[in-house]
Design brief:
By secondary structure, the chain is an alpha+beta fold. The chain folds into three domains: about 60 residues, Winged helix-like DNA-binding domain superfamily/Winged helix DNA-binding domain (Arc Repressor Mutant, subunit A, Orthogonal Bundle); about 150 residues, 2-Layer Sandwich (Endonuclease, Chain A); about 55 residues, Winged helix-like DNA-binding domain superfamily/Winged helix DNA-binding domain (Arc Repressor Mutant, subunit A). Helices cover about 55% and strands about 15% of the residues. Strands 3-9-8-7-4-5-6-10 form an eight-stranded mixed beta sheet, sandwiched between helices. Strand 7 and strand 8 form a beta hairpin. The protein is extended and about 75 Å long. It starts with 8 loop residues before the first helix and ends in a 7-residue tail after the last helix. GO terms for molecular function: DNA binding. Pfam families: GerE. InterPro entries: Sig_transdc_resp-reg_C-effctor, TrmB-like, Tscrpt_reg_LuxR_C, WH-like_DNA-bd_sf. It comes from Streptomyces filipinensis.
C-alpha cells in the first residue's frame, strides 16, 4: 500500500509487524514475516533510511515511529524528491533550449565532420529513408506543426514500416492539436497499431529526429523544415538533444489517453498558452508553437485572461504567477 511513497512490500510488512509487536527482536520478526534474517536486516536499514524507525531501546536498538509521523515523513521526502526532479527537469530544458538557440544563430561549420548539411526536401527524405535500414535500436522524433502535409505522411510510411518490422523502437511526440487534423490523426493511429509509441505535448521546441542516440537531424530554419537540415554527429550535442527529448517525453500524454487537467484546472494546452503569454509572445507566435489557427490561439488566450480577471497580457502573467499557475521567472 505504501509502495507509492517509496516503501517496498517487505519493509512495509516489517514496519506494520513492529507496530503490533514492538518487543520482538530480529529472530521474532524473521519468524513473523517469514523472511530470512538478511532480508529483515536490509528492510530495517531501509526503514531507518526513511526515518520510520529510530535508534533507541527496542528491536535490536530500534524504535518504531507512529503511523501519523511515519506517513508525514514519507510524504515530505517524496515532495522533496519531486521538487528536486522538477528543478533538474527545468534545468535540462533550459540548457537544451539554449543549445538550440545557439545552434540556430551560429550555424554549424560545413567542413566539420560532426555536421553535414542536407539541402532540399528530396535529400532530407532520402537521408531519413536511409534510417529505415541503418537504425539499430531506436528512433526518437519531435513532430511539431499540428497537421502535417499528406505527402509527407505518405512518404514516411515506407521507412517507418521497415523500422517497426525490424523491431526498432519508435517514439514520437506530436502536438495535442493533431486531433484537429484528420490525415495526421489517421497516420498516428496507423503508427500506434504497428507498435510505435506516440505521445502528444502542448508545444515542441523544434522539429527533430534522433537515431540510436548517435546522430540527429534538425532543420536549418526553425520555421521552415523544407529549407534544409543538418545531420549532427557531435556526441555532446546529440546527448543534450536526447536529454531534451526525454524531459518532454516524460511530461507528454500517451496518444489516446483522456486529457488531464492540472491542479488549477488547466489543460496542457492552456498551461502552455499562459506560459507563452507571460513570455510576451503574440497570438500568431503562440498559434505556430501550438500548431493551431490564429483564431484558436486568440480564443484560448482571451479565455485565460478572463479567468485570471486580467486586462492585459502583462497582468495575466503577473496574476498567473500569483495564483501558482506558472513559476516566477
Amino acid at each position: 500500500m505504501l509502495n507509492i511513497l517509496g516503501l517496498d512490500a517487505l519493509s512495509e510488512e516489517i514496519y506494520r509487524t513492529m507496530l503490533a509487536h514492538p518487543d520482538r527482536g530480529i529472530d521474532g520478526l524473521t519468524e513473523l514475516v517469514g523472511a530470512s534474517e538478511v532480508r529483515v536486516r536490509q528492510a530495517l536499514e531501509r526503514l531507518s533510511e526513511l526515518s520510520l524507525i529510530s535508534t533507541s531501546a527496542g528491536v535490536e536498538g530500534f524504535r518504531v515511529l507512529n503511523p501519523e509521523t511515519a506517513v508525514d515523513r514519507l510524504l515530505a521526502r517524496q515532495e522533496s524528491e519531486l521538487a528536486t526532479a522538477r528543478m533538474r527537469l527545468e534545468a535540462t530544458k533550459a540548457a537544451a533550449t539554449e543549445l538550440l538557440a545557439a545552434y540556430s544563430t551560429l550555424r554549424p561549420p560545413l567542413d566539420d565532420r560532426d555536421f553535414e548539411r542536407l539541402v532540399g526536401p528530396e535529400e532530407i527524405r532520402h537521408r531519413l529513408a536511409a534510417f529505415g535500414t541503418s537504425a539499430e535500436e531506436e528512433v526518437m522524433t519531435f513532430a511539431p506543426g499540428g497537421g502535417h502535409p499528406e505527402e509527407d505522411l505518405a512518404a514516411s510510411r515506407r521507412p517507418n514500416t521497415r523500422l517497426l518490422e525490424r523491431g526498432i523502437r519508435m517514439r514520437t511526440i506530436y502536438l495535442n492539436s493533431l486531433r484537429n487534423h484528420q490525415p495526421t490523426l489517421h497516420h498516428v493511429r496507423w503508427l500506434s497499431e504497428r507498435g510505435a509509441e506516440v505521445r502528444t505535448a502542448a508545444s515542441l521546441p523544434v522539429r527533430m529526429i534522433v537515431v540510436d542516440q548517435r546522430q540527429a537531424v534538425l532543420p536549418l530554419q526553425r520555421d521552415d523544415a523544407r529549407a534544409g537540415a543538418v545531420l549532427i554527429r557531435s556526441e555532446a550535442t546529440v546527448a543534450a538533444l536526447c536529454a531534451l527529448f526525454e524531459s518532454i517525453w516524460d511530461e507528454a500524454r500517451p496518444f489516446g489517453s483522456e486529457p488531464a487537467l492540472d491542479d488549477h484546472g488547466l489543460s496542457g494546452q492552456e498551461a502552455e498558452v499562459i506560459r507563452l503569454l507571460a513570455e510576451g509572445l503574440t497570438d500568431q507566435a503562440i498559434a505556430k508553437r501550438l500548431g493551431v489557427s490564429h483564431r484558436t490561439a486568440r480564443r484560448i488566450a482571451a479565455d485565460l485572461m478572463e479567468r485570471l480577471n486580467a486586462r492585459s497580457r502583462f497582468e495575466a502573467g503577473v496574476r498567473a504567477v500569483q495564483q501558482g499557475w506558472i513559476a516566477a521567472q
